[in-house]
Amino acid sequence: MSSVKMIGSIVGFYLLAGLAIAHSMQAEQPLRSQQDIARDKVSKGSQVIDMVDINQGMTVLDVLGGGGYYSELLSEKVGNQGKVYLHNNQAYMPYVEKELTIRLADNRLSNVIRWDKEAENLALNEEQFDAVFFILGYHDLYHKTKDWDIDKDRFLAQLYKALKVGGKLLIVDHSAKHGSGTKYSQQGHRIDVEYVKKELEQKGFKLIRQSNLLANLKDDRLMSPFAKEIRRKTDRFILLFEKK
User: Is the pLDDT confidence value at 21 over 70?
Assistant: First the structure.
């Protein structure tokens, strides 16, 4: 066999091997729903996650994670050796139970652990997580009804304790008017970014990055995020903290 033919055979072998591996990996990854794929355009989930250095084998908490859109993306990031804890409390269930059931049916996300716990008792271990994602829920720490009254200090202390030293906390939420603090958290489901930064720094987290990836200058930062005109198009801030 000529050297040219030999080289061609070797290259062909490795190309076929690579395709086989890629096909195997693709087969192991469940197909995402059309709803999630459509949401990618406005939530930019993969880009948000990429702000955190998530690697194979990591353990991540998706706190008050709703229907699990971010958890599914994180599931692929951490791989078979990693784990994603998808947390919700009982008050979230009427809104997310159906989506959760479909998403986790037949163990399709085998590395995602459904973690239904009340906010005051998350039952987490010390330094358990490499990262915590808290998406569109921070304002709810200041939302009070007869069925919803979170002890925010206890809740945040649990997150801090459960993060490894150097672990990351990613916050995404609907922006309120500058200087408004928590004024719009109750009815408007929004919170002032500067208030969040100050509060979390007081809790021991260090702000290491802020992004305008989900900014929308056309949003008046007053309308409810659930209003049809602005749903999934609000001005949203992104903050990345590190546990010191």
Answer: no
State how beta strands 205-211 and 163-174 pair: unpaired
Verify that 12 and 116 share a domain, yes or no.
no
With a threshold of 0.90, does the pTM exceed it? no
In this structure, the strands spanning 163-174 and 236-243 are antiparallel
pLDDT of 75-133, one tens digit each? 999 999 999 999 999 999 999 999 999 999 999 999 999 999 999 999 999 999 999 99
What confidence tier does 40 reach under pLDDT thresholds 50, 70, 90?
very high
How many domains are there within the chain? 2
Q: List the structure tokens of 179.
A: 């200087």
Same domain, 15 and 70: no
Cα dihedral: 160, 154, 122, 98 (round 10): -110
**Residue-range definition of the domain harbouring residue 215:** 33-243
My answer on whether 127 and 209 are in the same domain is yes
Give the C-alpha distances (Å, rounded to integers) separating 199 from 104, 126, 155, 157, 204: 34, 22, 13, 12, 9
Q: Is 7 exposed, middle or buried (0-12, 13-18, 19+ CB in 10 A)?
A: exposed
Same domain, 92 and 144: yes
